[in-house]
Description:
Layout: H1 3-26, E1 34-38, H2 45-61, E2 65-69, H3 76-83, E3 91-96, H4 97-102, E4 117-127, E5 129-133, H5 141-150, E6 156-159, H6 165-177, E7 182-185, H7 189-197, E8 203-206, H8 208-216, E9 220-225, E10 251-259, H9 264-278, H10 281-289, E11 293-294, H11 299-320
Parallel strand pairs: 1-2, 1-3, 6-7, 6-8
Antiparallel strand pairs: 3-10, 4-10, 4-11, 5-8, 5-9
Amino acid sequence: MNKRQLLRAGLLGLSALALAGAGHAQDFPPKKAVTMMVGFAPGGAADAAARLIAKKLGENVGQTIVVDNKAGAGGNIAHQLTANGPTDGSMLLFGSIGPLTIAPHMMKLPYDPFKDLAPVSGGVHFPNVLVVNANSGIKSLADFVAAARKQADAVSFASTGSGSASHLTGELFAQAIKAEMLHVPYKGGAPAMQDLLAGRFTGYFAAPPTALPHIESGKLTPLATTGLVRPAYMPSIPTVAESGYPGFEALNWYAFVAPAKTPTPILDRWNQEIVKVLNDREVREALGKLGLTPHPTARSELTDFMRKESAKWGAIVRERKITAE
């Protein structure tokens, strides 16, 4: 093969690569319905936010987006299914703080959040709110702490699963008040809330969308929120930080990720579309009514954020000697 033939072959090869890349880009949106995985049962915060976002996202890209709830193992089941899912852009995961940044420090997982899942965009974040049954006799955070300090495990708290944000928030709080509380894991916010209303445990660091209707109806008593400042939708409820535990902060969050081998052009397109939805005025207002703050990010920003969160919660897991139940 002479030089001219070599040059021609090289140019043809580059053209083929360019066309292949363009082909991937043109496969957006995917020709088949898109699945948005959620790791918790219907009715909780993750489900409410995912369905709201999925509806607008589907309208914008012109493709059906089906929310698929795969509850269990603190959300890890949905994350594993996504890690092993189709890489054509037809699967997204509304991933959560627990499986993405906490669970890897507690157990050996069949997936690596930083290797088997690709960041797409931040989703939403919010503080939890510590609530108790209105008939519990507990009227303030001081009452709750006093009950917890009487004896180990005298107070119980629910979570959306071992290693979830609500679980680690409870552990962080137990550390702050120097008391031991009994952890009661559930498969999602909705079933945990049902049992709190039935009086089957003491308290729950709940997501606002799950708790607000029952606070407004008078069935639950809110004691404190877990951010550094009071949320605009709960202005009368003090934070843990201002109630005698300065610096206490535990935010819950959800972010969009996809199977790691999804082509970069498709991941970039999903990022653009999700950021667009999260910046939409109507979507932001609807999420705000649920007590959720939109958190759109660049893909690289989400990676950095996840690594910082992983370091923070990994330290709590080690200090509290938390293991999978």
